[in-house]
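Replying to the earlier thread about multi-chain prediction with a worked example.

Input:
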Amino acid sequence: ELKVEQNPLFLSMQEGKNYTIYCNYSTTSDRLYWYRQDPGKSLESLFVLLSNGAVKQEGRLMASLDTKARLSTLHITAAVHDLSATYFCAVDYAGGTSYGKLTFGQGTILTVHP
Amino acid sequence: GAGVSQSPSNKVTEKGKDVELRCDPISGHTALYWYRQSLGQGLEFLIYFQGNSAPDKSGLPSDRFSAERTGGSVSTLTIQRTQQEDSAVYLCASSLITRYTEAFFGQGTRLTVV
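Result:
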């Protein structure tokens, strides 16, 4: 059974600081996704990572994927309050050589304060 | 429509009643997912439909839960004899599986069992 684990689960940051959220997964997959969820809202797609070494950046967020280590990171640079949300990673693996089934991590609740 | 549409957005039901939750995916998307999100919890996979393949029902928590997808489009999640522990937000997502599976989520149905 595929397991996806994020850490930390709770992250309180000061504005202007940097931090990294980690996403570990238990089976081979080269397809990983990051989502953002604001309170009371649905999930918004942030990044699609499709190969080993993939790096994507959008504003203050940068995501990377190391398929050998089965690890993805979401790095936050110079945090601002607007980044406060819950962040989920999801791994795309349906067994064997099949894809299309998404398994999510537990989510990381990020709070950025002055 | 432009996005994944779910109805109703909110549903309050009495314990023991049956409920039906509807999901209208993005037109042309071959994959459809149902997830459940309880207060403060992550995303619990329920069921996954992919094209004409048999659905992956491995996440359904009990035989009170069932789902169908008619004509490869609209899906209905049915919960029979609802219990209080069924209270959660039920999220539907759809994706177009080509090289990858970027899932787009609906706004969810908040189910409250009283």
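Chain A has a mean pLDDT of 92.

Feel free to reuse this layout for your own posts.
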